[in-house]
Amino acid sequence: MKKLMFVAGARPNFMKIAVLLRLVDAHPGVKAVVVHTGQHYDHEMSQSFLDDLEIREPDHFLDVGSGTHAEQTGKAMTRFEEVCARERPDMVIVVGDVNSTLAASVTAKKMGIKVAHIEAGLRSFDMTMPEEINRILTDSIADLLFVTEKSGSENLMNEGRGGGVVGKKSVSKVFFVGNTMIDSLKFGLDKLTRVDTTGFGISMLKSLLGGYGVVTLHRPSNVDDPEKFKRLAAMLNRISAKVPMIFPIHPRTRKNAKEFGIKFGENIHVVNPLGYLEFMYLYKDAKFVLTDSGGMQEETTYLNIPCFTLRENTERPITMEMGTNVLVGEKIDRLDHMVERILTARAKKGKVPPLWDGKTSERILKIIEKEI
């Protein structure tokens, strides 16, 4: 029996592998082994994610924890090597762009194990982002590259990852398969129709407010710089005077807000981080989303929710070209005018990108079966 090893380092990684993992677990000819590196870990939140996504407990927990990029990557490599030596998988499957993704890829390749990268080819072209370095290095050594959007294929081709020639036959290991995040999103939306959402802590607030916006903010470039964070908070306070906002606050963001003396207006409702389903229940009905998250750009595009990305660049250009995403960049001071357009029914209309149909995991499994 062939063995596939899935590696996840943070909660969004589980969202990207959930449907594929369930498919593999149900496949009689393939065994799945799940490794949680513990790069980002909170027991209660992680268990909530597993329950919401209906996936089983990881087989191995590496307890890497926080630290510098080098510390996290080094610990993950050392501990992952031990797991690979015991399990001897036929292929390691990594997702996204966290430090654990790079660590597992390098370790597996040095042990002669094939590597598949889900969400390959995305590029922000900003080398100050640690995630960009992780993406480039992982893609440079992966054996199978599963791409979510056309820009990913183009980037990989430009980097010489388009494959080679065996005899007279061209062989490509770049596969445009769609987006596994959308697989999980569709699963979650269906599950929401079958659960009692009145049990969610956010349910009453959502009902009381009626129309609202949602904020997520966690990137160091936004919340570690006191002046930048204060500028963003002032803009959020101005926008909230027109429409209330709900802000599930990241622990890093909460800590820095307190340290920098940042106060949010009374119309910004700051709540604790939410589980996967509860957060989906919140943002699916939002008038707009303000975020610096990568995944939110994709999910709002699929749901046709106006999205303002509080970053200088995005590695997901399809969300701007076809979707509802607008890159704010240095136009923070104009953000209230952008939101005003939405409130007056002049929001950007988007389309669902190709192959974002909820069947990406099925396509990936068929390809992997031929390669192991």
| Radius of gyration, taken over Cα atoms and rounded to an integer in Å | 21 Å
Largest sheet: 7 strands, parallel
The DSSP helix count reads 16
Q: How many DSSP E strands?
A: 15
Cross-sheet strand order for the largest sheet = 3-2-1-4-5-6-9
Look at the helices and sheets and give the structural class. alpha/beta
| Terminus-to-terminus distance | 10 Å
Helical amount among residues, as a percent range?
40-55%
Outline the low-pLDDT stretches: 165-170
Notes on the protein architecture:
It is a single chain. Helix content is 46%, strand content 17%. With 372 residues, the protein is of the alpha/beta class. The strands form three sheets. The chain has a seven-stranded parallel sheet with strand order 3-2-1-4-5-6-9, with helices on both faces. It has a six-stranded parallel sheet with strand order 12-11-10-13-14-15, sandwiched between helices. The longest helix is centred in the N-terminal third of the chain and has 19 residues, at 69-87. Strand 7 and strand 8 (169-171) form a beta hairpin. The protein is globular. It has helices spanning 11-25, 43-53, 69-87, 99-110, 130-141, 150-158, 180-192, 203-209, 220-223, 226-240, 251-260, 276-283, 294-303, 318-321, 335-343, 360-371, and strands at residues 2-8, 30-36, 60-61, 91-95, 114-120, 144-147, 164-166, 169-171, 174-176, 213-216, 245-248, 268-271, 288-291, 307-309, 325-327.
